[in-house]
From TrEMBL, chains A, B:
It comes from the Bacteria. Residues 102-320 form the Heat-inducible transcription repressor HrcA C-terminal domain. SUPFAM superfamilies: GAF domain-like (SSF55781), Winged helix' DNA-binding domain (SSF46785). This is Heat-inducible transcription repressor HrcA. It comes from Glycomyces endophyticus. Residues 33-61 form the HTH deoR-type domain.
DNA sequence: CACTGGCACTCCTGGACAGGGAGTGCCAAA
DNA sequence: TTTGGCACTCCCTGTCCAGGAGTGCCAGTG
């Protein structure tokens, strides 16, 4: 494949992204300094179409890139355009004002939506890869406890525990000491094993209570694990004239399904720094017309993913840069809070 | 105003809500057993239009209700149609499976969206009207604490506290005892006053630390107070053919602005059990074409509001019934968790 | 051999226009 | 007060036509 043909493809992608209209040979030869005439561009375009990189919505219309064309653009042509210094400062400032972990996630998702003008999705740090920092037991009534678990990513989970017998202050202290001794510093992935043996270690008269506690602990470790996601920027779906072929309906519905969102982000179990899934490359049926750009984040190892969802005709260099930059800053912040 | 005229208005509202098309005199006289001819209905319609209850999109079209018409319908004509027994059971079951307060809110908002086929908004229980049940201090590093506040509505707030001096275990115990002694059981509304005096009560060598702690406490009591809202069912905006005149854009944007949502729900500072704001009655400009049905909820006193947002041409009896029923169940659940 | 200008062809788009239909307002009669 | 009749208005749909943009192909040129 010719160098010039690649340039023609780039021109088509860039113009189409900018104008949202099929781009013709004349426009390409004029607006991009290729040094050849429109007729030559036409020949190249015929080749590119034959090869499946571009297509015509109908005869006598200009060309638009196919998913395969965008893929080539992303892989070989798109230089990532870094954020401006001002943008970087703004990102940094905004994120460093966060008051707790939830706030970091909330701010991140808004920031991504705003920077990219697209729908942003951020996964809350997965519990799986974090470890227990502290467990707190608070007695509410004699037969009711509140269990609060704090992880090293700063996440807090709380649960009510109904216990079978009345507890004294000392009982609660005992239990608190026990669970902390056993679980503090342990990875959540290992927790279920440890929790299973918990009841056996308690004083005989506290066995029943300890096993009720163990049951709830297990739930809160296992059940809610990496379920939560934050979404922002749904309004951006209406930019550029409702880009999704049909209605917004299925997209808006999918955006409220946590399971779907997890698929969207999560399949990137790869540790790749950044993933771009274009059109058909998406496994989620509703997003076959969309592009998803995701990145992992976390202090050292990856504890979650974030990304944006937009039309295949998106500004790839800009979007990729934004996602990458934000993921890095968030990772830094988590690192500091370690 | 004639009884029959009211019946005509009801017929117009019901048919328009059902079909989404202007309704003509013939349809009214045929489908609703009024026992009069179309010509008579036409006379009544002329009157209703004169009085501002209905209007014509253009000459030679049927009539559609105005906001004033809906208002009359709601006030005088709409018998609320209660949920079916099956629905009530489903609501109860779904809500009682919630595992903590956040989960109650999440489930509630989804439930409302599903029951009403509209956009649902639920305010997290306001901190203002709740009181402190327990404060927990966990030392993370010698100069860093985590503060966890548990309120009697079951809400948990966490914050990091950077302290100026290194703390021993005993120091932390001391501080924990102090803040709990002072704040436990106190209403959050009274908390700022108490917090102000906190530093003065600490041992001299802990003064600086106590005042850092007080500062953070104050923030977490005041700042985040009743800021959070949950939204669900945005996809329902696309039902019935994009009901909002213009694009969905401003609506979707408004739904991501917590401030706007609070206005939407909050203005109902009235303790009215249920509020219906139709069209212009809404103070938020973006929702002038919409109807908002809200209800307060809480154990005994109102601690938050919930509601749905939909087109003025909504199924009022059904929607009102659903909002009322859900608000009641949620209140019951909070009551139990007291 | 690659590039270029010219030309006929295709197909979308928007405006103009007419016919059909639904609904109204008014009037005279019961 | 109600009713049937009738003329009128206006929207909606489909058709037609001209204009425009873009293409493919071909023959000519360096």
């Amino acid at each position: 494949m010719d160098d010039r043909k690649l340039e023609v493809l780039r021109a088509i992608v860039e113009d189409y992204v900018a104008t949202q209209e099929p781009v013709g040979s004349k426009a390409v030869s004029q607006r991009h300094a290729l040094g050849v005439s429109a007729a030559t561009v036409r020949n190249d375009m015929a080749y590119l179409e034959e090869a499946g990189y571009i297509q015509q919505p109908h005869t006598s219309a200009g060309r638009i890139p196919t998913a395969k064309g965008y893929r080539l653009f992303v892989d070989r042509l798109g230089k990532i355009k870094p954020l401006s210094a001002a943008e970087r400062r703004a990102v940094h400032r905004f994120l460093s004002e966060a008051i707790d972990l939830d706030d970091v996630v909330t701010r991140t998702v808004r920031l991504l939506a705003q920077l990219t003008h697209q729908v942003a999705v951020v996964q809350y740090p997965s519990l799986n890869r974090s470890s227990v920092r502290h467990l707190e037991l608070v007695s509410l009534t004699p037969t009711r406890l509140m269990l609060v678990m704090i992880t090293d990513t700063g996440r807090v989970e709380q649960r009510y525990v109904e216990v079978p017998a009345e507890l004294t202050e000392d009982d609660v202290l005992d239990l608190r000491r026990l669970v902390n001794e056993q679980l503090q510093g342990k990875a959540l992935a290992d927790a279920p094993r440890i929790i299973a043996g918990l009841a056996g270690l308690a004083r005989p008269e506290l066995r029943a209570t300890a096993s009720a506690l163990a049951r709830v602990l297990l739930e809160s470790v296992v059940a809610r694990t990496e379920e939560r996601v934050a979404v922002a920027g749904a309004a951006n779906l209406t930019r550029n004239g409702n880009f999704f072929a049909g209605s917004l309906r299925p997209i808006l519905e999918a955006l409220e399904e946590e399971v779907v969102l997890m698929q969207l982000l999560g399949r990137a179990d790869s540790n790749a720094l950044l993933t771009v899934r274009i059109g058909d490359e998406n496994e989620v049926a509703d997003f076959r017309e969309a592009t998803v750009v995701t990145a992992g984040y976390g202090p050292g190892s990856v504890v979650g993913h974030m990304g944006v969802l937009g039309p295949t005709r998106m500004d790839y260099p800009g979007t990729i840069a934004a996602v990458r930059a934000v993921a890095r800053y968030v990772s830094e912040i988590l690192e500091q809070n370690r």
